[in-house]
Amino acid sequence: MFYRALMVGIVCFWLAMMVQLVRLETHPEQTDILNVPVPYVAGVMFRYGQLSLLNIRDGSRPVGSMEIRPSTTGTGGRALYLSGSLELPGQEPFNFEGDLKMDTASRLQAFRTELTVRKQNFHIVLSGDMARKTLLYQTLYGDQVASSQSLPMEAAALERALAQNVGLDSRMIPLDIGGMAPPDITARETQITLRSGELQVYEITVTEAGTQMLDVYMTQLGQVVLANTSFGYTLAAEDWE
Q1: How far is CA 66 from CA 53, 105, 192, in A?
Q2: In this predicted model, what pLDDT tens digit does every residue of 69-128 receive, in sequence order?
Q3: Distance between CA atoms of residues 80 and 222, nearest Å
Q4: Can you tell me the distance from the alpha carbon of 237 to that of 54, in angstroms, rounded to the nearest whole number?
Q5: For residue 241, what is the DSSP state?
Q6: Residues 6+ apart with CB under 8 A from 160
Q7: Is residue 114 classed as helix, strand or coil in its secondary structure?
Q8: For the chain, what are the domain ranges?
Q9: Where would I find the beta strands (DSSP E) of the chain?
């Protein structure tokens, strides 16, 4: 139950942030980006394709790691791959990975997210096809599919699935991602000090309903070196630590 709920949380947060990233590029009038050109902020990661390797900490305690790998396709589309591991108090350590695929107009085409509980070799997979407007939810033990459920990408169907399979009240997560009000997003140029010296970066801050959700420091080549989250976790490159 815990990992199912965690899966929903990761997918919703990830998709919501990606939707806002796309909005930055396609609807600049809806944002409050300062000092930095909006197309650059939205596309810099994909333009240079820099790999970001981050360690995850809960306070001073190491709890995992994350890899962020953006890329472009031969047809001008974009892809974003995430992977890593996390160890939470009282829970089995698990791995996570996922990818987003977009077309040349930065419209989301498909996504896939997988959680793996290493000790049990148990997998939870959630994938979505935007053209067919369907979601596929699967659980597996090793390579054997334990359960599989295909759902229409509709709020009512997702509400029922959340109640039956996850035990979450649908009001706890944003089902209608496309209808979400844009958060306040600001960016500025600043400098941070790494062990290797001073580094010029872009600080991108995402605020939702007055709460700072995410504060990211990204190099001018699109490599993430530090991210602070509202959940209390810090993601940092080794040079920052």
Answers
A1: 6, 27, 21
A2: 999 887 778 899 999 999 888 888 899 999 999 887 777 889 999 999 888 899 989 898
A3: 13
A4: 5
A5: -
A6: none
A7: strand
A8: 2-236
A9: 52-58, 61-72, 78-86, 94-102, 108-117, 122-129, 134-141, 144-152, 184-194, 197-208, 211-219, 224-229, 233-236
According to DSSP, the residues that pair with 71 across neighbouring strands are 79
> Three-state DSSP class for 136?
strand
| 18-27 per-position pLDDT tens digit | 555 544 444 4
Q: Identify the residue whose tokens are 């148990």.
A: 122
Encoding tokens for residue 132? 């067919």
Question: pLDDT digit string (tens) for 173-226?
Answer: 444 444 445 567 778 888 888 777 888 888 888 888 788 888 999 998 999 999
- Counting every residue written for the chain, the total comes to 241
Mapping DSSP onto H, E and C, the string for 61-107 reads: EEEEEEEEEEEECCCCCEEEEEEEEECCCCCCCEEEEEEEEECCCCC
Cα distance between residue 119 and residue 102, in whole Å:
34
Q: How far apart are the C-alpha atoms of 84 and 75, rounded to whole Å?
A: 28
Q: CA 209, CA 160: separation in Å to the nearest integer?
A: 27
The tokens 């047809």 sit on which residue? 75
Residue among 218, 166, 195, 231 nearest 7 (CA): 166
Query: Residue type at 87?
Result: E
Q: What angle is formed at CA 60 by the lines to CA 57 and CA 63, rounded to 5 degrees?
A: 35
Strands 211-219 and 144-152: unpaired
State both tokens at 201. 């970066």
β 61-72/78-86 pair status: antiparallel
